[in-house]
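Chapter review: from sequence to fold.
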Amino acid sequence: MLSYLQFYEDYFGPLRLFQFISIRAIGAGVTALIFGFYLGPKVIHFLRAFGARQAFRDKDEVGELADLHQAKEKTPTMGGLLICLTVVFSVILWAEPNVYVVAALSTYLILTFVGFADDYLKISRKNSKGLAGRYKLVGQLFATGVALFILLGPLSELLTGADGNAVGSAQKMKELWVPFLKEVLVENMPVILCFLFFLITLTGSSNAINLTDGLDGLAIGCTVTVALTYAIMAYASGNFLISDYLKVSWIPGSGELTVVCSALLGGSLSFLWFNAHPAEVFMGDTGSLAIGGLVGIVALMIHQPLTLIIVGGIFVMEAGSVILQVASFKTRGKRIFRMSPIHHHFELKGWKETKVVIRFWILSLLFALLGLATLKLR
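The C-alpha cell string follows.
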C-alpha cells in the first residue's frame, strides 16, 4: 500500500524511498514488532477470557513430562492469531501486491484457519486430540492448490506490482534448483510433479515446525533465524545483479518476499516477548502450522526449498527424531530417545527447559549461517 507513495515524489522528494525494497522491509519488520507489542496483552486477555487453555496429554501417556509441564496448564493457546494479525497487517501496509505476495499470504491464511480449527477442537473437547490428521492434510492440499493456481494460473498475469508490469511466474515456478549447483537442474517440471513437490515441501515444513513447538520460545525463536535468512535470500533472488553474482535463480518480483519475511521476523520477535519462559501464551497449531506453510511457500517461490533442510535444521531434527522413534519402536520394539520430539528427550535427561531452548537457538543460528553459505558455494 505505502509503495504507491513513490509515484508522488514530485510533490515530496523523500517519498521516492518507498520504491526501495530494503526500506519497506525494514518498515514491515518494525511495524510488525511494534504492532505485536501493542496487541499482545489484548490478545492474551481475550484468549484467557475465551478459555483457550492449552490441552496437555495425560500422565499415563507422557509420564514424567506431565509433572515438568504441570505449571503450564492455565497458559492460553491460539497465540498464532497475534502473529497472523501483525504479519498480515504489515505485509498489506508495506509490500507491493504482486503474485508472490498474494500466494504467500493466501497459504498463510489458509493454514492459520486449519490450525485454528485444530486448536478450537482441543479446547472444546478439553483434550489433546484436535483435528484429525486427514483433515489437516486436506487443508494443506487446498493451500497447495490455491498457491499453485495463483502462481501458474491466469492470476499470475493479472496481479501486478507498483510499477504496473505483470509478474510472469508460471515458467519460473516449474524450475528446480539445487544448492551448490550454478545451473537449474530441471527447467520445466510437469504440473503434477510441481504440485507434489509443493505439497511435500509445505506439509513437511508446517508439520516440522508444529512438532518443534513444545517448549517456551523454542519454535518461535528458531523461526526468527529462518525468517531473517529467507529475507536475505529473497532479496538476492529478486535483484538481478546480486543473483547473477551469486549464481542463484533470478525471479523478477520475488524481492517483495523480503518484505513478507521481514514482517514475519518482526511478528516473531514480538510474540517471543510473550512466549519466552515462563510463557504467557502459546502459539498453538494456529501459529506453528501456518508459519511452517509460509516459510515453505517462500522457499519454493525463490527456488530455495532444498536449502530449507539446512536453514531449518532444528525443525528437521525434531521431525526426524519422531520418524526414527516411531520406526524403531514398530520394527524393534525399542525406543531410541526417552521421548520424541527430541527436545523432550533432553528435558527428561535433566536439562532445564531454558537450557534446551537456548542451545537449540544457537544451533538454529549455525544452521542459518550454513544455509547462507550455500549461496556462495556454487
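Two observations follow directly from the output. Confidence is low (pLDDT under 50) at residues 163-167. The chain has 16 helices and no strands.
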